[in-house]
Amino acid sequence: MNKGIRFFEIGEQIEQYFLIKSSTKGIASNGKPFLTLILQDKTGEIEAKLWDATEEDELRYTDQTIIKIQGDVQSFRGKQQLRVRKIRPLMEQEQIPIDYFIERAPLEIEEMQSKINEYIFEMTNPNIQRITRYLLKKFETKFYEYPAATKNHHEFYSGLAFHVVSMLDIAKSLVSLYPQLNKDLLYAGIILHDLGKVIELSGPVSASYTLEGTLLGHITIIVEEIGKAAEQLEIEGEEVVVLQHMVLAHHGKAEWGSPKPPMIREAEVLHFIDNLDAKITMINRALDKTKPGEFSERVFALDNRSFYKPSFQD
Amino acid sequence: MNKGIRFFEIGEQIEQYFLIKSSTKGIASNGKPFLTLILQDKTGEIEAKLWDATEEDELRYTDQTIIKIQGDVQSFRGKQQLRVRKIRPLMEQEQIPIDYFIERAPLEIEEMQSKINEYIFEMTNPNIQRITRYLLKKFETKFYEYPAATKNHHEFYSGLAFHVVSMLDIAKSLVSLYPQLNKDLLYAGIILHDLGKVIELSGPVSASYTLEGTLLGHITIIVEEIGKAAEQLEIEGEEVVVLQHMVLAHHGKAEWGSPKPPMIREAEVLHFIDNLDAKITMINRALDKTKPGEFSERVFALDNRSFYKPSFQD
Amino acid sequence: MNKGIRFFEIGEQIEQYFLIKSSTKGIASNGKPFLTLILQDKTGEIEAKLWDATEEDELRYTDQTIIKIQGDVQSFRGKQQLRVRKIRPLMEQEQIPIDYFIERAPLEIEEMQSKINEYIFEMTNPNIQRITRYLLKKFETKFYEYPAATKNHHEFYSGLAFHVVSMLDIAKSLVSLYPQLNKDLLYAGIILHDLGKVIELSGPVSASYTLEGTLLGHITIIVEEIGKAAEQLEIEGEEVVVLQHMVLAHHGKAEWGSPKPPMIREAEVLHFIDNLDAKITMINRALDKTKPGEFSERVFALDNRSFYKPSFQD
Amino acid sequence: MNKGIRFFEIGEQIEQYFLIKSSTKGIASNGKPFLTLILQDKTGEIEAKLWDATEEDELRYTDQTIIKIQGDVQSFRGKQQLRVRKIRPLMEQEQIPIDYFIERAPLEIEEMQSKINEYIFEMTNPNIQRITRYLLKKFETKFYEYPAATKNHHEFYSGLAFHVVSMLDIAKSLVSLYPQLNKDLLYAGIILHDLGKVIELSGPVSASYTLEGTLLGHITIIVEEIGKAAEQLEIEGEEVVVLQHMVLAHHGKAEWGSPKPPMIREAEVLHFIDNLDAKITMINRALDKTKPGEFSERVFALDNRSFYKPSFQD
Amino acid sequence: MNKGIRFFEIGEQIEQYFLIKSSTKGIASNGKPFLTLILQDKTGEIEAKLWDATEEDELRYTDQTIIKIQGDVQSFRGKQQLRVRKIRPLMEQEQIPIDYFIERAPLEIEEMQSKINEYIFEMTNPNIQRITRYLLKKFETKFYEYPAATKNHHEFYSGLAFHVVSMLDIAKSLVSLYPQLNKDLLYAGIILHDLGKVIELSGPVSASYTLEGTLLGHITIIVEEIGKAAEQLEIEGEEVVVLQHMVLAHHGKAEWGSPKPPMIREAEVLHFIDNLDAKITMINRALDKTKPGEFSERVFALDNRSFYKPSFQD
Amino acid sequence: MNKGIRFFEIGEQIEQYFLIKSSTKGIASNGKPFLTLILQDKTGEIEAKLWDATEEDELRYTDQTIIKIQGDVQSFRGKQQLRVRKIRPLMEQEQIPIDYFIERAPLEIEEMQSKINEYIFEMTNPNIQRITRYLLKKFETKFYEYPAATKNHHEFYSGLAFHVVSMLDIAKSLVSLYPQLNKDLLYAGIILHDLGKVIELSGPVSASYTLEGTLLGHITIIVEEIGKAAEQLEIEGEEVVVLQHMVLAHHGKAEWGSPKPPMIREAEVLHFIDNLDAKITMINRALDKTKPGEFSERVFALDNRSFYKPSFQD
């Protein structure tokens, strides 16, 4: 039915559904108010101007609403812009799956829940297991809906949980190759390491930073939560401070946001796995858009490198 | 009565009291055990060897005991060493003030308590005031006895409280010069900023790092304590996260141990005052041992600089 | 009478006085000359185009002239622009206080002079006092009119003197808290530290860098001036080189422009005070424009940080 | 039979076999020549002095010879030293397994050969497979005997091949988790990445750097070898330059010795796996010598960090 | 006849020859195709739009074609643009020397050849001489046509050879001042150091990077070529690895692209000469466009510095 | 007659002249005073102990005295030490050329004077010429005797002038290769660039830093001297500030001690020549002590690199 925004061409007439990512009011040279709408679907974003906007329009076309637009794709200063002919809100009887508008993890929440629960089930140290289970339960809904970041990688719906599941799978294979690794610590560290993001970020979609997120950061937030959980569960063993350290150190270095570098073997491995999953994910995404025999666009978070897709790669 | 260790000269015979800073057992070439004692008084340290040490000696001459030695000051590989003729523990009736052996803050604990309480009393925001008072009370004894560090500056008995008092005095004068500063935040930040040291360090004298101190650090420790205090006191205002940020950011930069840089005006000022008091204290100490017209020894924590005492300085 | 530029709104008609910050000639597509005027008052700047400019216009509407304009506020590429209907130079009988057009220090020159003279009066070392007084006298007029910088902080009329006065006040309170500090050195260092700016910069308003300023910098300039002053006054004591060092080292580190780091206690303190006054001033300015509960704009010179104004701040 | 050097105690008499790690001639104060022998077995090293050494001794007791010594363990300047009573070379009939003297990989060469051949067998791209097989064959003996480094990790007999096998195992599990990865490239890159070490280093035991190793380094050496192999095998596809890049980039950054950063996905992953195996190996070794509840010695190659072994770790 | 592009003025009508640097197709708002042509001559570049471009136009006006245009110089968004009235390809009988369109080295190829051959002739070590001669011969045509870089310095036709000649002349005078320098090594190193650019870059004009250039870089490329040349010439002496090192190390530091720093005296000197010629060339170019008493534009490759041309400089 | 210290062997008896580099009094275990003498000749240094030193000895054997010693070369803690049998001061009739004891430049002072005067004579700008001549005359004696540094390179008698002469010779050849260079500026900059060392350092032999040298540095010192010279000579042209900049910028970067980077072409070239002469000199010295086919000792000031002397180097 609908053609994705990324595939729009100048001159084309379209009629389809969009999610309003942001709606901002402005005043035109003629003194009349207008709305600048950033419209999104899963494939991209496009700007649209709604001229001579009424007060009703302002109330109706707010952030995160779904609308239907009929219009023309035009060019403005080298970028595409949508000229709106008709616009209306979604009607009650219309059912557009949210997947149409936003990117989400390739696994269903239930699958991820079942995998993570299995990993927790495998733990043998009761203190570590109880703290992990307690905190996961405390923030469960958000954990399975939030992204892992606002940009770069896993910045989509359920991205946080999906990142954790991928990391757990890597951890499992490393545990079998290096049997000295403490499985409980490593699994718990992975599950908790970014859990503070459910407080640091504002929501599952188009997330921004909360005040607590900006002033304290997700690492500090979850370290405090582990402390409170231990108090609540009346756990006093060394596991508490060790788990807090796992999370505290997972950025690897002070200048990357970890006030203490990893001083536990599993903390070092956690830092590695986190990095590895993030980097492969970013490179895969860049190469998905690249033809064999060509270089990808530059990836800012990877030192602005461009990656080559060999021509013999099928 | 006693001559300070710093003033010992080779060839001299001495007879006086020392605090054993550390006692380590070794085995001599002849196969017999001996003790290497590091003796200290307020002016310095000297090594002594106790040859043919009995098991009783080992039990008697342990760390932090006070002893009396009669012996000769000798030279060994360019350093002074004490040749022990007689040694015995302190006898019950002997009263040696602890000040003789260790350095301590120039203010009495009572004076510092009264000054700090006055600063708390001046606060007008009840949330900030209550959290500060609660945490100070929780760790009060240790707060007034612990050093502020294990080396470099304020590493003496009551050093932590003394550092806080000096900083509060600077803060007071800045508040009067820059009236926009929020006095409550600044005073509370100063009082709490290093309070985590009472958990990070092992004790008031010859302090080393605890496990929690090594793996988490005093900043993370006290941030968590502020969170728990707020929960306990049922305080939910923005003051909690702002206070936590004040403490979190007081090292100024990620690479110096603050995962977030100051993003509150008073946090920036707190960072400054902390630095200023530490630096003036270190330079003063180096110059105290320097004659006019000469350069001091190098101060490692100040980029290994040496400071000149002008010859016109009286 | 006049509405500040910062408060102009699109569509508005205005008629008021401006200072021409810069006037640049251009050639329009129709081949005729026009002037691009950057107009300023104390609250901000706005661009105006004067089309079909005559040669007389060019001569009349030059930098730093005051003019009266009647026109309309319009929008051009997202920024405000003034469409000129009528323009004329200031007439002789019109008296517009310069404060209307430019920012200036909050203290009057006389007040600052009296404060600084008092600080000089307090000095007891005659060599330091004489050099300070001699150089201040030599550059007196400029010292009280120049800014302390071309941007970031104290970049306004009398900014240099005001920065010095604020620093002296901080110094005074530090001297009382740390009595070991040599008051004479510290006060003299503060008064002289940026005095080279009267040669480095081009003038009191809209300052740019002179050739000497660019090739040598204000630090080198004033160090040489201290040397010449001593020669002139026939002063030969160690005070000369120590004062030169105070100034030379006040940027704190080689990479910040001081070829020698502070190696005198008072030089370290001077560096601190300079930094502190600059930083508080920048943060205050950013927060003045910020509502409680919001973050300020980013401050480039403070590592591009944004500062939060707590919502409980009144 | 033999007690390892690490377990020697002062005062003990020993009689056992050693490998001479190095033998250096000196002249004693009495004008007579002596030999300083560094003796090693798998557990450690000890110094021995052979006084009044004859010319025959000099020729007999050279580097890498096995000898038998009867002597006493003594203390000299705080370190153990062996006082030699009797010394003689290994006699023909004596059979001391080389494992007694040197550390070696935990897998037999045949096992490693079979694993690596299997990985090569799995490759489907003939160009990649042929180059890999050709170069492995060219340097086969050395590849299975050389260490991977002179210190830090895998610096033992067969260390290079063992490091490669461990990396291939990690690669295999990553390939199954991230199916986009090109298995052929990744396996070939791992097998070749450090192969230049067989030219960079001097031999399988107590390796030092060759001239080529010092002036060019193992990365440049093997990149050239790949080029020559392709020429020899008359392979001209893009695989050649891509394989060369895999090796060239495996240190990850210019400052770590790779003139080009990874610009192929598999090159980035190779860099990660290399790092991961090296780091886990180093941490494991440090923790093997550490008791639960204690910190390990500092590991220089890991930013001089010390690692904690949790007390709940069995 | 022709006026250089740099000297065009708005409003002017011109009729002259250009080289098309790049030709890009676009679609106008009216849905019709157009070509954006970047036109160049030796003095600069200008953009031209060819509206309503036919398919024939597309095929005719491609990169690196010479054309004749009649049109008007206009202003568009502050930059000059050429409005095309008439356009046609170069006719067969028209002879425009290539120097008119592109910058080239100030020496003729023959002169450079003769100078370089003389330097090779002066070498006395046959191994060094043969390798140098062999490689120069192998890539001779390209060596004398390619630029030394794509931007910053010597980025013109024959720039590579000209850079080498200038460096050889400096080397000659240093050899006479420091007679310990090995002339053969230094000359050979200079001739070979950038020779890999003939593979790294795509051609003599408007060069971009080849795949080999991007993934391996000119240093690695030529090091391999030296190895192959030695094999071909059956040279086995130490000269091979030393020459490879000369080239490998010529960027001076790992972070500048040399995996090994100079460890041969002549390698250090080669690095210096390379830098010196590059820097003087860049500064000269910047100052050529600067009037006495003014500062040049900023030179990005020289830390973005601006250079002053003294007013007493004639 | 005399054998150089570097060639002493343990057990040897010697009788020869030495220069006392330093003489330090100590107190032996038996309570009697002794002198530790560091003796030097051009080839090296050796320590000698003079036991039971009388007060007369102390006065007689002070720094920089020449003495004659008869004694034995012994070994103490792995280093050679001289056991003194007889010692006496130099007698009046004994004539030992100073070259025997200290290293000095390979050119005579007169030769250097004549070369430098010739370079000054070649200058055509009278302002530059007069300032250079004036300052050279002002510090002439010291300029021809002082070293250029206290260690690393040119740290010998007349080292400063010799360094300047070598640099002038390089400059001369660069001026002929790059005719745009302003000869006057370059020559004057070279002659003046390190002239401040005659105030920064304490003397021509065994130099240490003066107070002015430590607090201001030779760059600041000479910049001020240029300013005073111009005042004295009543020169006011732009040459003054340009010459000051040449000297100010000759360390190239702020972190290397130049508060301004080179912003004049000749300043950049001066920085280069300074570096080049220093580096070649250091490498030559290291290689002089190295056999062909071996690596030199590490050179600290060259990033601690070791240099290889090729085996084909004669």
TrEMBL record, chains A, B, C, D, E, F:
SUPFAM superfamilies listed in its UniProt record: HD-domain/PDEase-like (SSF109604), Nucleic acid-binding proteins (SSF50249)
Coiled-coil residue spans: none
Domain of life: Bacteria
All residue ranges annotated as the HD domain in the record: 163-279
Keywords: Hydrolase
Pfam family, one: HD
Keyword Hydrolase: yes
Protein name (Swiss-Prot/TrEMBL): 3'-5' exoribonuclease YhaM
Organism listed in the record: Pallidibacillus pasinlerensis
